[in-house]
Amino acid sequence: MPHTLDHFYIDGAFVEPHGRERIERIDPATEIAMGSAALGDAEDARRAVAAAHRALPGFSRTSTAERIGMLERLHDAVLARTGELRDATIEEYGGPVSRATWVSKFAAQTFLDAASTVRDYAFERPVGHSTLVMEAVGVAALITPWNSTAGSICGKVAMAIAAGCPSVVKPSELSPLQSLLVAQAVHEAGLPPGVVNFVNGRGDAVGSALCTHPDVAKISFTGSTATGKAIARMAIDTFKRLSLGLGGKSPTIVLDDADLDTAVPAALTAAFQNSGQACIAGSRLLVPEHRLDAVLDRVRRGVAALRVGDPSDPSTTIGPMVNAAQFERVQRYIRRGIEEGATVVTGGEGRPDGLPRGYFVRPTVFSQVTNDMAIAQEEIFGPVLCVLTYRDEDEAVRIANDSLYGLHGYVFSSDLARAQAVARRMQVGRVAINGMQHDPLAPFGGYKASGWGREYGVQGLESFLEAKVVMTL
């Protein structure tokens, strides 16, 4: 259904933007226009920061119990919009319905997870002969991606509220409807004016204004590593606190004792989750050299069973890429893999048969890949999997760690102790063993070019806090 989205949420009210630019909204599954959305400018960002700054003195002094009450109301308000958020996720970036349903429920759950984290957190505690006081860092700019909009917005807002920080949300300009639905839930939850504000816009306009504004004390960004570097450069002049959740090129290590009938389907799920448009996608599959043929046989059969198509169809596994630019980016990487000498096991360039329209990509698997190839080192953000071989466990770990990134990893083995030992040697922020586990109370983030800091859990809460020591004689 076409939507014309014309309002931002600032200081507790839906207001007309100052910015005059608009963006056309295109359904990635059909390439049909779905309406348009207003984009803000630097003045809209300044208005939102001013509202958050006015709210800071009172909100930062609220009690933990008061903030938990807000989080619980937000949970209820977002949960009531689960169906709308699911449909908006499918409409705006073609997320498969199974993924869209999970994300919409996860978005609501983040508020209860934050409440659980903060409930027993000691904001004041003795340290030596002094008192350690953890207090809100100040106004936070929350900059979120298009591939998990509702979940990312809610996760960041939840922790900012738990810490007592008013915030300005700058969602991806590709996700205005999801952002509006969350803003409506915030309004319905009855938070004080200015505690949470939303300004849609481009990074070079709204994002830059937030990253350089002197009244913004904290930036929490999730997105590409290139943009994260630019944000870090802008933030340094005013010494803003930074949390950067960036890209990944996650390795999946299948050890030589793994049950391939279990491990390979799970590895494909890790690789092609969210149509491959996921920072934690297991896009490098490391397998024992002597088991390569057995792995590839299962890979061919597994990929052949994947359904690419209408993301609203429950039988669909892989939906379209978010837009034409992302479609072309994935096509370029597939061509580059072929040029680099990798072997196409399945898939390849072009759209899948029977899908002449829409930004659909053929799920593609390469073998004969070496870790110095671009397809093995660079984040593609699409349904492209590289299969690499190793001779022993030490080489597997070396290849896994030979990456600019270090966000996530996966290990498959019939020996849990052995899998855990390998996991501990991997230079990544999270490792899932024999599956795709998620722990919402544990910190999430990465090593190296995958970012700075952590989200969720106590570490995520403390990223919105400053430590003050009070000493007395």
UniProtKB/TrEMBL annotation:
<dbReference type="Pfam" id="PF00171">
    <property type="entry name" value="Aldedh"/>
</dbReference>
<dbReference type="GO" id="GO:0004029">
    <property type="term" value="F:aldehyde dehydrogenase (NAD+) activity"/>
</dbReference>
<dbReference type="InterPro" id="IPR016162">
    <property type="entry name" value="Ald_DH_N"/>
</dbReference>
<dbReference type="InterPro" id="IPR016161">
    <property type="entry name" value="Ald_DH/histidinol_DH"/>
</dbReference>
<feature type="domain" description="Aldehyde dehydrogenase">
    <location>
        <begin position="14"/>
        <end position="470"/>
    </location>
</feature>
<keyword id="KW-0560">Oxidoreductase</keyword>
<dbReference type="InterPro" id="IPR016163">
    <property type="entry name" value="Ald_DH_C"/>
</dbReference>
<protein>
    <recommendedName>
        <fullName>aldehyde dehydrogenase (NAD(+))</fullName>
        <ecNumber>1.2.1.3</ecNumber>
    </recommendedName>
</protein>
<dbReference type="InterPro" id="IPR016160">
    <property type="entry name" value="Ald_DH_CS_CYS"/>
</dbReference>
<dbReference type="InterPro" id="IPR015590">
    <property type="entry name" value="Aldehyde_DH_dom"/>
</dbReference>
<comment type="similarity">
    <text>Belongs to the aldehyde dehydrogenase family.</text>
</comment>
